Amino acid sequence: MATxxxxxxxxxxxxxxxxxxxxxxxxxxxxxxxxxxxxxxxxFKGRNTITNHLAQxxxxxxxxGLNPNATNAEANGVGxxxxxxxxxxxxxxGDFSGAGSCNxxxxxxxxxxxxxxxxxxxxxxxxxxxxxTVSANTTAGFSVVTYTGxxxxxxxxxxxxxxxxxxxxxxxxxxxxxxxxxxxxGFTYSSDYFQxxxxxxxxxxxxxxxxxxxxxxxFSIGSSFGNGVTYVNYCWAPIAGYxxxxxxxxxxxxxxxxxxxxxxxRWLMIKSSTVxxxxxxxxxSRNTYNEEKNVLYPNxxxxxxxxxxxxxxxxxxxxxxxxxxxxxxxxxETYIYAAFAENPLKYANAR
Length: 351
Known about the structure:
By secondary structure, the protein is mainly beta. It is built from no helices and 24 strands.
């Protein structure tokens, strides 16, 4: 087992920050016990009322929002509530609607944040057949990538130096589905994809979405990425002790499967690959002790839901506690997951 880690403390690269909107100006810190970072991708969701999910990043800029639970085009730079990506969090102003606000008065929110490479020069990556703009954090295995589609097979540079295992793409200038790839034994890049804006199972894209597995320099896209349409991709590579992506098989009982990640999770997303079910996100800020039951659904604008059965976050992975019929443990069903760490196992304590 590794004894040193590229990211020995998850607090420097990923945060799950809770706060309450005030409809006015405020600054939100992502510091946990004085450790903080500048976020380059923030995924917001209102918890106590029906609101759209809201995704914003440093390349597209504050105010340019996309909604993971919807197919609409990018907001035009105003009306989301985010005004700046700060050195230790983010700044908010106003009480907006439209694309989905992150600062409406009295609404409780969570902001899931990842650190990429900060602001960058446009068109700084020419590794693929399409020139891309990339903000990359190679240490933590995360990059934000923007580019323009051609309506034909193409490759796009991602800037990570290792092949990503999770990719999430969305058209910016037009309506269209969020399309997702996650590397595990049941996923074939030439035919498969998932969606955020629907609860569908793994879908056959017939090589028009993803074409081949990503390499250490590029990912491959098909004709579904339309000519002249602008896109954003969020790319993550697995980093020992910090991030893990894969699958497990449900057993249908409350003593569910244990999934080893090598760290205590801070954030966990699960989705069935074999039947139509909600995407399912928990984090250690909204539940500070086991079981993790407070769930938000990336495909749905619904309020936070307290599941009757949850998940245990352990020092070296997570344990499913839900019996059959509760969304992430039906017997024989395959589930995909993406997890990010609070701490590697070497430094983690039980909760």
